[in-house]
Amino acid sequence: MTVLHSAPKWSNEGVLETLVAALGDLVVASKEEHGEVVITVKREGLATALELLRDSQEYQQLVEIAGADYPDRAERFEVVYMLLSLTKNHRLLVKTCTDEVKPVPTATTLWPVAGWLEREVYDMYGVVFEGNTDLRRILTDYGFEGHPFRKDFPLTGYQELRYSAEEQRVVYEPVRLAQDLRVFDFTSPWEGSDYVLPGDEKAGEAK
C-alpha cells in the first residue's frame, strides 16, 4: 500500500524573532498579522536584506512584488516582496517605503524574474528601481501619462485613444465626456436630502 505524506503544517512559531535577529539593524518594523510574518526594512538596505533571506534563511523563491499607495505619508509608496521558502514551507512579506523620487534597489540581481515585476510596479505607481536595466512600462500603452494605481489618479485618466477613419490610425486625444460625469452630488439620499424619495413617506406613518 502506498502512503502519501503531506507537507509539514505551516507554522509561524519563532519565525519572526529568528528573522528579525538575522536582519539586525536593517529592520524598521516587524509584526505577525493575519497569519503572515511581515518585516519592513530600510530602503537602502533592501538588497542586503533580500540576499540574507534568500541565502541564509532559505527563502529561495520570489513569488510577487506589489505596490501600495498611502498619499498622507511622507514616503507614500510601499513596495512589498512576497517570498517563499520551499524547504520550510513558509511565506514571508518584506516591505520597504519610498516616495516619488527616491529609487528602490532592484532585486533583479537576486531573482531575474523581478525584472517584469518591478516594471509593473513602476508602470502602476511610478516607483523607480535603481539597477533595473529595462525599466519600461509593461501594462499601459507607450504614450500613457501618469500611473493609474496612484490614489490621486483620476478614474477617467488624462487621455483617450480611438481609431480615426480619416487618418487611418489610432489617435490620442484629451478625455472628453459626453455627460458631465466629473460633477458628483455625494449627499446620501437617506441623509440630509431636501426631497422625498418614493416610498419614504411611509416611514413616518404610525404603526
Largest sheet: 5 strands, mixed
Task: Please state the CA-atom Rg, rounded to the nearest Å.
Answer: 24 Å
The low-pLDDT segments are none
Q: What is the strand content?
A: 25-35%
Fold-level CATH name: Beta Polymerase, domain 2
Alpha-carbon distance between the termini? Answer: 71 Å
Topology as H/E string? HEEHEEEEHEEE
Number of helices: 3
Shape: extended
Class by helix and strand content?
alpha/beta
Top CATH class: Alpha Beta
Mean pLDDT comes to 86
Strand order of the largest sheet: 1-2-5-4-3
Strand count: 9
Domain module count: 1
Can you tell me the CATH architecture? 2-Layer Sandwich
Can you walk through the features of this model?
- With 207 residues, the protein is of the alpha/beta class.
- It has three helices and nine strands.
- The strands form three sheets. The protein has a five-stranded mixed β-sheet with strand order 1-2-5-4-3, covered by helices on one side. A two-stranded parallel sheet has the order 6-7. Strands 8-9 form a two-stranded antiparallel ribbon.
- Strand 6, helix 3 (114-125) and strand 7 form a beta-alpha-beta unit.
- The longest helix is centred in the middle third of the chain and has 12 residues, at 114-125.
- The radius of gyration is 24 Å and the shape is extended.
- The mean pLDDT is 86.
